Amino acid sequence: MPTKKDLPENWAAEIELQVPFHDVDMMAIAWHGHYAKYFEIARCALFDRLDYNYSQMRDSGYAWPVIDLRIRYAQPLCFQQWVVVRAQVSEYENRFKIDYQVRDRDTGKRLTRGHTVQVAVDMRSEEMLFASPPVLLQKLGVA
């Protein structure tokens, strides 16, 4: 596995978003549950960049459910704040782990970090695989 400095360019994606009114509480702070949604938006951008989005996963015969989600809330996200959410592949051999970092767009200050873990499930047999299927390795360029 390459070091984080040497990762292929398409193993990471960033999105910008402005925290909308409907995501905040009465204190104008983003509700903690919405962070998973922000991670998902960045993860979808990453999958598009890998040319292996959810439709392509399904068409390849694999479902990739999230089996673990971790979020470390260091600083709150506030109404109308612009943030950058980065999603980056960190593991791929036996599971698909993606690390996330949320930064303030204007200051660069790290606000939140986390990760998700997904596993391949053969859609025909509904069996979880203990190694990533060749299609993922091909999309990552490591096959």
Shape descriptor: elongated
Mean pLDDT: 95
Question: How much of the polypeptide forms β-strand, as a percent range?
Answer: 25-35%
Question: For the record, what is the CATH homologous superfamily label?
Answer: Hotdog Thioesterase
Low-confidence stretches: none
Number of domains: 1
Question: Structural class of the secondary structure composition?
Answer: alpha+beta
Do you know the CATH topology?
Answer: Thiol Ester Dehydrase, Chain A
Give the strand order of the largest sheet, numbering strands 1, 2, ... along the chain: 1-4-5-6-3
The count of β-strands is 8
Describe the sheet with the most strands: 5 strands, antiparallel
Description:
This protein has 143 residues and is of the alpha+beta class. The protein is 21% helix and 34% strand. The chain has helices at 34-50, 54-59, 134-140, and strands spanning 12-18, 62-63, 66-73, 82-91, 96-104, 110-118, 121-122, 127-128. The strands form two sheets. The chain has a five-stranded antiparallel β-sheet with strand order 1-4-5-6-3, with helices on one face. It starts with 11 loop residues before the first strand and ends with a helix. The mean pLDDT is 95.
In short, what is this structure?
It contains 3 helices and 8 strands; from the N terminus they run βααβββββββα. It is of the alpha+beta class and 143 residues long.
